[in-house]
Design brief:
This protein is of the alpha+beta class. It has one domain. 36% of the residues lie in helices and 32% in strands. The protein has three helices and five strands, in the order ββααββαβ. Strands 1, 2, 3, 4 and 5 form a five-stranded antiparallel β-sheet that branches. A hairpin with a 5-residue loop joins strand 3 and strand 4. Helix 2 packs antiparallel against helix 3. The chain is elongated.
């Protein structure tokens, strides 16, 4: 039987390279969360692959990424992780690199996005 898992999303930390009003930042954070949620099956696939090797794999990781002026992710890397699984960590970071976000109004946007994983 295939194990299911819970993927918990925590607070998103967004910093804009160009100044933004507080209302714009909140709106953009909401847009980022919406796009990340739309891509959860990709993150889930990374974790499922890890579960096939380590059935009790659990932990969290934070991915730092930068959204370029055209909305494409120009940089993505794992900042912190308690998963202790380099393949899952690399898979999630690579997956994020392929995402397309709404174009920022000005400059680039740096995002720190935490994910938590646990088998059910």
């Amino acid at each position: 039987m295939r194990k299911m898992f819970s993927l918990l999303m925590l607070t998103t930390i967004v910093t804009a390279a160009a100044p933004a009003r507080a209302d714009d930042e909140t709106l953009y954070q909401s847009l980022i969360r919406r796009i990340v949620r739309a891509h959860m099956p990709e993150v889930r696939a990374c974790y499922d692959e890890g579960l096939t090797r380590k059935p009790e794999l659990a932990g969290s990781l934070t991915v730092d990424f930068e959204i370029g002026t055209d909305g494409h992710v120009v940089r993505s890397e794992v900042k912190d992780s308690t998963l202790a699984d380099a393949k899952v960590e690399a898979c999630v970071a690579a997956t994020v690199r392929g995402w397309l976000f709404v174009r920022p109004d000005e400059g680039t946007v740096k995002v720190s996005y935490p994910f938590a994983f646990k088998p059910e």
